[in-house]
Design a protein that fits this description.
This protein has about 375 residues and is of the alpha+beta class. It contains 13 helices and 11 strands. It folds into 3 domains: about 60 residues, no CATH class; about 240 residues, Hypothetical protein af1432 (Orthogonal Bundle), CATH 1.10.3210; about 60 residues, no CATH class. The longest helix is centred in the N-terminal third of the chain and has 24 residues.
């Protein structure tokens, strides 16, 4: 164990591991603050050194004690590698959360909140690259697909959350609800969501209980009510056609409204065991069309700011007959995004990126799925 000079331990400090005054006597357990009375007593008893495998941290610095699952992500400089790492570490972390929930083990919101705060900051800095990332093997198993869907929903929901200028705490709660919006599925038989066949009415009814199951699970663990309600209401719709309670938009919380759009767009544009994926543009148009007025119009507007008229990752035909993929855009002119050419290689061996404009090269149309297959094969 490490030595800690008693006179150097700040009043109010917390140790991440027990603090001892000898090899047997525990002075402090984790989360118990080092008080002024204790400091004075130790000096009077002439205990000048205490021992612990942990480190003292002041309450305002507690977040630093939780090791970030994204530490490697931040250190990586190459964008693609950084994005791959983001998905890889978050996938592993999310699998652990779902496995714990499935086994009836405790989920710690304090730990989750710390990781979501870090995730939100990474999404803020890398939103477009994260939105354009597509994991081709995510459909190999229903479990992996569920985890991948949760992460994509998180990225999109937090991107929408930035439009609302949510506080760090609100973003962390939104991210937590988005990541765990289908946590209730772990309480259902796996053949209800890992299956290529059409579900029977009884199985469909069971699926419709997952928001309530998730709410009950998180509520029992004392998760914030905003997180619990986001999970409970994410399948509700503005027109009252959703589930599990068929409530209308005026009684649905903002987090749930955001997750409803993010979850739907993610599901539309992901390959599933039961259906192929639609391209990102068709997915966006389906949300914008808002059949039956299912989604909140303000959230849809924020969603468009998040993903652009030509979503990042869209394959397009340009006015000079070149083909390419949208890689960036600005909110001031979303109809003229940056496009990486896919059929031209520059002198440096890289595919050039062009800024489209009204007077120069511009997008003529989106490529069909058949054209994309031909072009990338």
């Amino acid at each position: 164990m490490k030595n800690h000079n008693v006179k150097d331990i700040a009043v109010g400090a917390l140790f991440s591991k027990p603090l001892y005054i000898d090899d047997q006597f525990i002075l402090l357990s984790p989360e118990m603050p080092f008080s002024p009375v204790m400091a004075q007593a130790l000096m009077e008893w002439e205990f000048k050194v205490a021992y612990s495998d942990g480190a003292p941290v002041l309450p305002g610095e507690q977040n630093d004690r939780e090791e970030s699952i994204f530490a490697k992500v931040v250190s990586e400089k190459a964008v693609l590698r950084r994005i791959e790492l983001f998905y890889a570490v978050l996938e592993k972390y999310t699998e652990t959360l779902f496995a714990k929930a499935s086994a009836g083990k405790q989920l710690d919101y304090q730990s989750l909140s710390i990781q979501m705060t870090e995730a939100c900051e990474l999404i803020r800095k890398n939103r477009l690259a994260l939105l354009s990332f597509y994991k081709k093997n995510a459909v190999q198993s229903g479990q992996n697909n569920k985890i991948y869907h949760a992460i994509r929903t998180l990225v999109i929901a937090v991107g929408i959350g930035f439009f609302y200028k949510l506080s760090k705490n609100d973003l962390a709660e939104l991210g937590s609800a988005a990541l765990l919006h289908e946590i209730g599925m772990v309480k259902l038989p796996s053949n209800t969501y890992i299956s290529k066949r059409t579900l029977n009415p009884g199985e469909k009814n069971a699926i419709h209980t997952h928001p309530l199951l998730g709410y009950s699970l998180l509520k029992a663990l004392d998760f914030p009510l905003t997180v619990c309600n986001g999970v409970l209401q994410h399948q509700e719709r503005e027109n009252g056609s959703g589930y599990p309670r068929q409530i209308r938009g005026d009684t649905t919380c903002l987090h749930a409204k955001i997750i409803a759009v993010a979850c739907s767009y993610a599901a539309i544009t992901e390959e599933r065991l039961q259906k192929p994926a639609k391209d990102v543009y068709k997915g966006m148009m389906e949300i914008i069309h808002n059949e039956g007025k299912q989604y909140d119009q303000t959230v849809i507007r924020a969603f468009l700011h998040c993903i652009c008229i030509y979503p990042v990752g869209s394959h397009v035909l340009l006015s000079n007959s070149s083909k390419g993929q949208v890689v960036n855009f600005t909110l001031e002119a979303p109809q003229y995004p940056c496009v990486r050419l896919s059929d031209i290689v520059g002198p440096d061996g890289k595919k050039p990126v062009v800024q489209t404009s009204p007077m120069g090269v511009h997008i003529v149309r989106l490529l069909s799925s058949q054209e994309i297959v031909v072009e990338t094969s």
